[in-house]
Design goal:
- The chain is α/β, with parallel strands linked by helices.
- It folds into four domains: 340 residues, Alpha-Beta Barrel (TIM Barrel); 153 residues, Rossmann fold; 144 residues, Gcn5-related N-acetyltransferase (GNAT) (Aminopeptidase, 3-Layer(aba) Sandwich), CATH 3.40.630.30; 151 residues, Aminopeptidase, CATH 3.40.630.
- Strands 20, 21, 22, 23, 24, 25, 26, 27, 28, 29, 30, 31 and 32 form a 13-stranded mixed beta sheet that branches. An eight-stranded parallel beta sheet has the order 12-9-7-6-3-2-1-13, sandwiched between helices.
- It holds the Pfam family Glyco_hydro_3.
Length: 937
């Protein structure tokens, strides 16, 4: 077994072994071939990519993977093979087995459902299923932002065109994969979301955006996913980049993209995987030997070669030649090797690899996963418009009226029963456009033409649902033919199905022609109702208001079509919404919605509050994941000196909380200490409704002098979080009436900082000369426990130099004398107090009120250094450093493994950084005059 720290196991000193671990390869066929066996046994190939061409069923896949791992084990591989798979759901599933593997909506379909929690559960279920057959690396999630959504080949494989929404759902999927024990791989860096296609198959599509433009949009989800620390690998695309600061032919071969942008700027430390070097554009322009070396030189750790054995051997010889020619150093090879071995150690071991649970596990989990699949598809079905109230059809149509279904000729989704049936009958034709080639890279998933067959079962289901006759025919690029005209005249309701009409323009023309016919026939007094269903991209007719009833399903798997039929006939009410900017543009129309706001009730709302906090933790920036350990009780202080009122927006039928707001009033200060909205319910005015009620409650208090955003007691949010979303949050609060700029308002930046490992920190001295400087300044320190032991002097100091809520925090700390204390900094002149800070033992009552002090299950114990109160003087920085040093020593004495200092003013951050503290969270506390809110609704 390779050691992941320090020197590698002696076996890896053989460069042939090391080079084998830097390649990921595949082959065609459902059985182990002599060629793939030779690559594993003699060339020490360490990673395998499985595609639809390798996989017939779950049982066969488990046997195939077990055989591959057995070959590697017997050949002396120290660690198991990485077994990678594209299993994105929707239209991209390499493994299909309708008896054991569940189908789920595409990424965009999941986002249409509006629930990151559901996306997490879908990802976890998907990863659990593929893990059962031996797969340990999913090539996902897709993190591309469709900045030119209507014309991009990725389509519904991507979440949408909003960077924050893509981040939210991408991180949810990534966490779901990780929860199932499978390694993750973001794709397609730096972005396949806005490619410019030049026309020829040999032309490489290019990104024309500048790095600044990419940083504001396309790179946001990658940056956020990397920041979580859960992204194991990154798939680097083969597209070109052309802008004033960069001219790159193939991203995965460029050190500007991999080493500079991905690693140095975004801080990615995991495994970089190249696009397949068998792609015609890459192979033709640079050649596989040179391309393989260039990919590694650029910073890639795994080079992908999908299936051609002769090309794979060429790549191996290319890497060896690169080392011989000293283009690649041994250290460069071992850097990649360490990364790959580290990822393997995180997702597999020999016990797991040689004994996949297979069908025994899949049969147990299939019923629950099938229920999840049905819910996910129901939630994804989106009715964007129904101006004429045609839905459900069983209410707008009489039984004797005829229903016409018009469907295009399409390529069925590779992971579908239809595909398997057609393959078994030998009716396979390859057909792919330039867009499709790049949408699916070189890992051809067997896209096939099925003629009219793909929607035949949809027609049968529609006929069964209405217990009557259905007219069904297909349409092609030949347009509206006499057969279509005759059927349109017969039917009272026409359903037209489109699939990526923006790239198949004949569908747009056909649909508009039929729409015009229906309008003319209605004008003559006939009943002609038109329903258009987009079964892939929702952008087909999203902006065309002439299509009065428009439904989106986001893919056309059997499960999607089943959900569509049930929605059309009223078995459930579709709740899906279009993703990204389309969703936001629709929700703007609802911005004046007023939600019923109720007082928070602990007994009634406790469970809903826990669920809300978990949803927020999953959807928040990584540095706010502490919300997952926040207890709902943290917001209730039961302090006689602080009046508190908390409010909720809830679903009274399901008891789910859609939003929560905590307010406090003490000594003239009215404070909003927290304002939460369920991520799936944002942009629906829930936050505004809560904010309106909170402000009305505060400004009516007798003696109010100030309203404030942010509070240290409880210390969940010290103010507006300062992170990637801070601009939009500040704008939101500004739109709610807050003056965020002096002189109208006050603003100060506060931070939580930490030392991640006190044992490591103990070996490093504080800043050079700190103790001597403290002695020369005549500063001494003592520790106060309880109100009797000089507590009054501490409270007097805090009352003079800080705010009312900080005063109450100190009072609480002094009352908790067994687990908390206060360190005082005193001057040798007159024993005057120069500063104070609260010290909290791990697990103290203060931790319940400050989630940053709570470690998750199995994590290190956290000691707190809370609310330093240091007046502004020339030696204030030195005083704070001394207080922090005393606090760290107290934390270590109480067996804490980590120290967190909370409520640090911006002016003191640099002093703490000099002591080895790192930034944890940053906030902007805002104060306003209550007059600005008088008369608030």
């Amino acid at each position: 077994m390779a050691k992941l720290e320090g020197d590698l196991d002696p076996l890896w000193q053989d460069l042939d072994w090391a080079i084998g671990q830097m390649l990921i390869m595949g082959w065609d066929g459902t059985q182990v071939t002599p060629q793939i066996r030779h690559l594993i046994e003699d060339h020490h190939l360490g990673s395998i990519l499985l595609t639809a061409k390798n996989l017939k069923s779950a049982h066969q896949t488990a046997k195939l993977v077990q055989e591959l791992q057995t070959i590697a084990h017997q050949a002396g591989h120290p660690q198991p093979l990485l077994i990678a798979l594209d299993q994105e759901n929707g239209g991209v599933n390499s493994l299909f087995d309708e008896d054991y593997i569940c189908q789920f909506p595409s990424s965009m379909g999941q986002a249409a459902g509006g629930s990151p929690d559901l996306a997490y559960n879908v990802a976890k279920a998907t990863a659990t299923e593929v893990s059962a057959v031996g797969v340990n690396l999913i090539l996902g999630p897709v993190l591309d932002v469709l900045t030119n959504a209507r014309y991009q080949p990725l389509g519904v494989r991507a979440t949408g065109d909003d960077p924050q929404e893509v981040s939210q759902y991408g991180i949810a999927a990534m966490n779901g994969y990780k929860a199932a024990g499978v390694a993750t791989c973001g794709k397609h860096f730096p972005s396949y979301g806005n490619l410019d296609f030049l026309g020829s198959n040999l032309d490489v599509p290019i990104i024309t955006q500048t790095l600044e433009e990419l940083s504001l949009s396309a790179l946001v989800p990658y940056r956020n996913a990397i920041a979580t620390g859960n992204l194991d690998a990154m798939f680097v695309g083969g597209c070109g980049i052309t802008n004033p600061s960069m001219n790159v032919n193939h991203a995965c071969l460029s050190d500007q993209v991999v080493d500079d942008l991905l690693r140095n700027e975004l801080g990615f430390q995991g495994v970089a995987i190249s696009e397949c070097l068998e792609m015609e554009a890459l192979r033709t322009e640079v050649g596989v030997k040179t391309g393989t070396v260039m990919a590694v030189e650029a910073g890639c750790d795994l080079v992908l070669l999908c299936r051609a054995y002769d090309i794979q051997l060429e790549a191996i010889s290319g890497l060896k030649l690169g080392v011989e020619n000293e283009l690649l150093t041994r250290e460069r090879v071992y850097t990649s090797l360490r990364r790959v071995l580290r990822m393997k150690a995180s997702c597999t071991n020999w016990t797991k690899a040689l004994n996949p649970p297979g069908i025994s596990l899949l049969s147990q989990i299939h019923p629950s996963h099938l229920s999840l699949s049905m819910k996910a598809y129901e939630d994804s079905i989106t009715v964007m418009r129904d101006h004429e109230k045609l839905l459900p059809l069983n209410e707008s149509m009489h039984q004797e009226e005829e229903l016409l279904l018009l469907t295009p000729l399409v390529k069925p989704l590779p992971a579908s029963a239809m595909t398997k049936t057609l393959e078994s009958k030998g009716k396979v034709k390859s057909s792919a456009s330039v867009h499709d080639e790049w949408a699916h890279s070189s890992r051809d998933r067997g896209a096939i033409m099925s003629g009219e067959g793909v929607f035949r079962e949809l027609g049968r289901s529609l006929a069964r649902a209405r217990h009557g006759k259905l007219l069904h025919t297909s349409y092609t690029a030949n347009g509206v033919r006499p057969v279509h005209e005759n059927l349109i005249h017969r039917a009272s309701t026409i359903i037209i199905v489109t699939a990526d009409a923006n790239r198949n323009l004949y569908q747009t023309g056909f649909t508009k022609h039929v729409s015009m016919m229906c309008s003319m026939l209605k004008a003559s007094g006939q009943k002609k109702s038109l329903v258009v269903v987009a079964v892939s991209s929702p952008y087909d007719f999203a902006m065309d208001k002439t299509i009065g009833t428009y439904i989106c399903t986001f893919d056309f798997t059997e499960m999607a079509m089943y959900a569509l039929v049930r929605a059309l006939f009223g078995e459930f009410t579709p709740r899906g919404t279009l993703p990204g900017t389309l969703r936001k543009s629709r929700k703007v129309l609802k911005s004046r919605q007023h939600w019923l706001v109720e007082p928070y009730d602990r007994d009634r709302d406790g469970k809903g509050m826990r669920d809300l906090l978990q949803s927020l933790a999953r959807a928040s920036a990584p540095n706010h994941s502490y919300l997952s350990t926040t207890n709902p009780d943290a917001f209730e202080l039961f302090n006689p000196n602080i009046e508190e009122s908390h409010f909720v927006v809830r679903n009274s039928s399901t008891q789910a909380l859609y939003g929560f707001c905590a307010t406090y009033f003490t000594k003239g200060s009215g404070i909003i200490g927290a304002l939460f909205v369920d991520p799936a319910k944002r942009n629906l005015s829930i936050g505004r409704s809560l904010h309106r009620r909170a402000i009305r409650n505060l400004v009516q208090r007798r003696g109010i002098k100030k309203v404030q955003l942010g509070m240290c007691l409880p210390g969940v949010y010290l103010g507006i979080p300062v992170d990637n979303e801070s601009t939009s949050l500040r704008n939101w609060f500004a739109s709610c009436g807050w003056d965020l700029q002096p002189p109208g308002g006050t603003s100060k930046r506060l931070s939580n900082m930490y030392i991640p490992d006190l044992n490591t920190w103990s070996s490093a001295a504080p800043p050079e000369g700190l103790l001597q400087n403290i002695q020369r300044a005549g500063i001494s320190f003592d520790l106060v426990h309880g109100l009797e032991q000089s507590g009054e002097s501490v409270l007097s100091h805090v009352a003079t130099h800080s705010s009312p809520e900080v005063y109450e925090l100190y009072r609480l700390a002094l009352q908790e004398s067994k687990t908390c204390g206060v360190v005082r900094a005193k001057s040798s002149v007159g024993e005057a107090l120069l500063g104070t800070v609260i010290i909290a033992c791990p697990g103290s009552p203060l931790a319940a009120l400050n989630p940053a002090l709570v470690g998750g299950a199995g994590q290190v114990q956290i000691g707190g250094i809370v609310a330093p109160v240091v007046p502004s003087t020339q030696q204030a920085g030195l005083v704070l450093q001394g207080l922090a040093l005393m606090g760290v020593r107290q934390n270590k004495a109480h067996k804490a493994g980590r120290s967190v200092v909370s409520w640090v003013g911006e002016e003191f951050v640099e002093a703490l950084v000099g002591m080895g503290f790192l930034g944890l969270q940053a906030f902007e506390e805002v104060g306003n005059s209550p007059e600005g809110f008088q008369g608030a609704e």
